[in-house]
Task: inverse folding
DNA sequence: GTGAAAGCGCTAACAT
DNA sequence: ATGTTAGCGCTTTCAC
């Protein structure tokens, strides 16, 4: 037999009907022990593997969830992904992953392709989906979780934390330490970075201070952190006593650059970051940062997909995972 | 109409037959311009999205490829993934991604689940698949690419580089610089790490030197690099003049730790790593490392899946992407 | 607890 | 260039 074995083939070998094999595989309890054993033998013997396309067509359950993240190269999303997979794989859920490169339009296109796979749920990053995307999602009638940010009006469910509040709190932390000339170094300037910036600006304004900002739409990197620091310093005649980097990559770059420029950290310049990457705790001086439970966020998102009713009736399907300012030597 | 629109619904609206709609969508050139326009209207009007399960069942083409990597948290694989997606998304190929946590057994299980989705191709990491996995793969009769390592006898196709050679060459590089008491710091000790170690041992043996090794099965991390360095030093009475870390995370950790211990790098101790992460080039002193084209590897793997005949007849379906030793101040 | 029949939505193969 | 027919492999429904 050269073609791939199907249910009938297995059924023939086991001496039962196809539907019995189907049941033995997907709902073993509904089949007598004897037949179950026979079927198992036959499956092994034939090397049968269920055709998920046929199964999905007949049952309208695809066994797949869709995930769209803005970037595969940003380590931050990998930890979220790791959390997603941690929950999904044991549930025998396959994950269809898409990378929209921070573009809502690409996200919209990906969405259309994803939806054609009839996913049983969807995890999307952020809240800036296009109108058309939202329409697609509405029609899909599947559970949807928006992650990373917090929103009052999720498409369906939402898990994340407030980037505004985190930016605000971190700035207050710096101000409480006595820093006054604080600059925000930002790269990419995606919605979440902008919210952090907004929090920063608010806190500075509240304190009657000028919010200094050095930003670029370029993708973030360690190297860029060094460049932004130089720009910020030259743009402000070196009159800075702290920089609040929109993420730890920039912060590391700024720290390395400061060392090259013989600027003492935190003596002459305080540096803080965002995300609390492993390196931040281990460099010298260790970098003050905002810790976020990314792994947890991924896990929670999948749990929400698995039991949507439960979560929708619990805080309106919105979960705030919060954040944590980790004070270290750099500030 | 509350249920999701299908081809017939669209056909009715457009006043054509279902198959025409199907063709207009998947092979526009085969349909007259007039009908194509009509169909497009009808699709938009109904909000139709193709049911990929039905399509896959009828055509036995799923539009999906499967990818299994050993770890989602290891940044190295993310860059490979980024390359994979870079090629896959424009080809409208969906990627089913699995994380086998460095376990061939988990890989085998994932494989079974993946295969039930009838992927059109498979990308696997490394060459240590279980026997049963190999049997499954043989029966699948789809193009398969093993990535990262190089092997003489791939299951189907192979793209990667020789970790043994890289370990060997890096060691020779150190020896040429005059270092003699060189220790290999290894974590995780997955097959590729072991090959690097084998290359190191060979080069040391060739030079008549004792290959010092400090290793642990623990997952690699920056922190662990510091710990391994301490162990290596205390295990060898501080009599080391260089450490060859199995990756850059360890190398960074070793460097940070050395600084804390007031050990001058490279004056008292040379440090080199593997993978050439961004940080390695930017820390002080910059870390000597082995550069590998991971992004390229991912892209190549997908290309091989797309045109298997072409690549199979070209070097037996094996592509050596090589590596590049990047000498920097740390050694 | 098991089976027979029907049909999920699409496309391949064969008309026209 | 367009339509008709049949069937992909499974599960749902209903019968026993």
Result:
């Amino acid at each position: 037999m050269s073609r791939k074995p199907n249910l009938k083939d297995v059924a023939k070998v086991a001496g039962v009907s196809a539907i019995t094999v189907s049941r033995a595989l997907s709902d073993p309890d509904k089949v007598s022990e004897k037949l179950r054993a026979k079927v198992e033998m036959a499956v092994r013997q034939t090397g049968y593997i269920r055709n998920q396309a046929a199964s999905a067509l007949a049952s309208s359950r695809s066994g797949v969830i869709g995930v769209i993240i803005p970037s595969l190269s940003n380590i931050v999303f990998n930890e979220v992904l790791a959390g997603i997979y941690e929950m999904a794989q044991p549930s025998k859920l396959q994950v269809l992953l898409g990378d929209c490169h921070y573009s809502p339009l690409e996200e919209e296109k990906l969405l259309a392709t994803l939806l054609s796979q009839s996913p049983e749920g969807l995890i999307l990053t952020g809240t800036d989906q296009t109108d058309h995307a939202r329409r697609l999602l509405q029609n899909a009638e599947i559970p949807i979780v928006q992650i990373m940010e917090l929103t009052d009006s999720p498409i369906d469910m939402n898990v994340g934390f407030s980037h505004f509040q985190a930016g605000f709190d971190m700035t207050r932390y710096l101000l409480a330490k006595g820093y006054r000339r604080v600059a925000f170094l930002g790269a990419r300037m995606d919605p979440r970075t902008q919210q952090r910036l907004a929090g920063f600006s608010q806190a500075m304004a509240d304190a009657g201070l000028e919010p200094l900002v050095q930003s670029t739409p370029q993708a973030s990197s360690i190297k860029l952190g060094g460049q932004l620091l130089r720009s910020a310093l030259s743009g402000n005649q070196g009159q800075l006593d702290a920089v609040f980097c929109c993420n730890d990559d920039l912060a590391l770059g700024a720290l390395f650059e400061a060392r090259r420029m013989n600027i003492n950290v935190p003596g002459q310049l305080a540096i803080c970051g965002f995300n609390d990457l492993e390196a931040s705790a281990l460099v010298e001086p260790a970098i003050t940062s905002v810790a976020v439970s990314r792994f947890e966020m991924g896990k929670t998102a999948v749990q929400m997909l698995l039991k949507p009713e439960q979560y929708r009736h619990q805080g309106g399907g919105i979960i705030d995972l919060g954040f944590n300012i980790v004070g270290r030597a750099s500030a």
